[in-house]
Amino acid sequence: MASLLVLSSCGNKLNETQASRKDISDLVFAPGTLESDDRYELTAQTDGYLVKMNFSEGTLVKNGELLAIIDNDQNIINAQSANSLHVIAHENTLSSAPALLQIKANLQSAVAKLKLDQQQAERFKRLYENNSVSKTEYENARLTLISSQATLSALQEQYQNQKMTALENEVTQRYASDVNEVISQQNQLKALHAGKIFLKKKQLGDYVRKGDVIATIGNPGLIYARLNVDENNMSKLKIGQEIVVRLNTNKNKIYKAVLRQILPAFDEASRSFLVKAYFKEKPDLDIIGTQLEANIITGTKKNAIVIPALFLGYGNKVTLKGGKKPVSVRTGIVSTDWVEILSGLKENETITAP
Q1: What is the CA radius of gyration of the chain?
Q2: Contact indicator for 277, 223 with CB cutoff of 8 Å
Q3: Is 348 left (phi over 0), alpha (psi -120 to 50) or beta?
Q4: Nearest Cα residue to 61 out of 218, 288, 201
Q5: What tens digit of pLDDT does each residue of 311-344 get?
Q6: What CATH number does domain 1-38+219-354 carry, 2.40.128.110, 2.40.30.170, 1.20.1600.10, 3.40.630.30?
Q7: What pTM was estimated for this model as a whole?
């Protein structure tokens, strides 16, 4: 490690040091937050009052579990009404439906009348051939038969049309019933998948509107660091790089993580690129949203000549002990505390604070 010589009269300020050899890492600073994998918002799908809530912060929920109920009588009434109309529409498709029974009765009468008219027409034909009736009487009997045939055909078509109309109406009412059933179920808020309630945003009795967030749910088994990286540093990043993380809740403790995912899109809100870092060991703090600071290790150099970063002056210059003016140095890796010197300063040379 670099040796530091304390020559200040007050004894608490570093006035000079020597360049020495040390392993140094190239770091990319990235602020961020703790996040949960599979995080989603439980949102209201309809307007109304929250009349039931089966959870609180920290509750573990199962996939499909009922979490809250919104009181919206109109949706329930609409669903019941649509279901009743569908039942009626279905009954109208049955052969026992009143409209179909009426047409069927008319059909039976028409069939009986047609049979009689056929017999009458055949009788008058024989009589006409024997000159027992006039041609006019025979023609009238034949016209009556044609009329009965037309009536029967019209009733048969009417029966089919009535049945088709009933079937079409049943389909329409069934669709309306299904839709209203779905809408009525929107009063019930269920978990999309298993997870933990990290944040509860509404209370029992609150009036909510469609789209309001009721709670935030996520996977408690995978807490990761969501980091913001400046676009100028993106070329340095690679999957698998080691990361050192400090949470704002306890900056004295260091967590080790690994870069696992680089999101491809630029985040306009933070004006940065987003990356995900997974912890090697789960953080003690099992919450999301807390701020953190991370250093992504993008490279390491062994046995490099280094000086403390505080001794590097403006324009990459250092002041040699006993020198009259600062001299320029060429730097390499720059970390939070150390600067690599590639040339301009030799090992064990003493420099003073700028």
Answers
A1: 44
A2: no
A3: left
A4: 218
A5: 998 899 999 988 888 999 999 888 778 899 999 9
A6: 2.40.30.170
A7: 0.56
